[in-house]
Amino acid sequence: MEIRHLRYFRMLAQELHFGRAAKRLFISQPPLSRQIRELEEELEVQLFIRNNKRVILTDAGKYYLAECEQLLNNLEKAKQHSRQIHLSESGVFNIGYISSISKKKLSELLKQIKKNYPLLQIHLFETSSHKQLDALEQGKLDIGIVRAPIMRPLLTQVNLYEDGFVLAVCKDTVLVDNIKDIDLSSASFISYNSEYAPVYHQKFLEICARLHFTPTIIHECNTIPSILELVAYGVGIAIVPKMAIQDCTTSNIHFLEIGIASDITTRIVMTFLINNPSNVLLPISDLAYDTFK
């Protein structure tokens, strides 16, 4: 018995007509009849009832069709998986990202990668831009989503989007809808650690200067969720990237526009090692670009 016997049998079972089945298989009718007869002889069962008007599956034929379908589907999956392994579409692919990006969009990207590369394991690393750049150069990350600028000659970069800033306040403690009604010079601020996120910290101070005050920073954190949690509990207020609004899960935070500093933004880019040998790097980077742009 050969695979073609199974494929011919399945096609005839679908069409229940020798002429139509032979046409779909791109063969003439006599070879199809011969292959079916050989299969029945080897199995020692009658799979079809034939007469001049129609072809009917026997009970044995119906059972064998179900088993045949499963076997052929498994063979196709095995072929696809073997090709993926051959093309390095399996194994591990490491993605780094800063905490302020949209987790909704990150989830969409992961789902699309899973759909296109079911054998590929994605490992995620939420960490600072600087640490991602080091990891990329060391070959520990395949793709990083970071805050520009990047001054690394071994890395290439693709612009994803520009992100502005908003003021996050606790609804229980700040009962205004306009940033002009807040005494920012006496407010307690929660911010990123200046060494952990220097670009963000620089933009934060630039916004404060535009608003003519020097911030009083009482707490520093390393992630946007941590900053927003402290804001929600009324510990202080924070200037955060606009993208953080999309992932904020608490209803106790109000985000206020910073109109006078709306032109102050940061550029979020995707970066990777120029000579990364992964065969899936460019396709996945295209998926990331389409998702985040």
Automatic annotation (TrEMBL):
Q: Which PROSITE patterns match?
A: HTH_LYSR
Pfam families associated with the record: HTH_1, LysR_substrate
Where the record annotates domain HTH lysR-type, the positions are: 1-58
Superkingdom, according to UniProt?
Answer: Bacteria
**Organism lineage string:** Bacteria, Pseudomonadati, Bacteroidota, Sphingobacteriia, Sphingobacteriales
What's the protein here called?
HTH lysR-type domain-containing protein
Keywords on this record? Answer: Activator, DNA-binding, Transcription, Transcription regulation
* GO CC field: protein-DNA complex
Q: A single GO molecular function, which one?
A: DNA-binding transcription factor activity
Q: Which family does it belong to?
A: Belongs to the LysR transcriptional regulatory family.
Per its UniProt record, what PANTHER family does this chain match? HYDROGEN PEROXIDE-INDUCIBLE GENES ACTIVATOR, TRANSCRIPTIONAL DUAL REGULATOR HCAR-RELATED
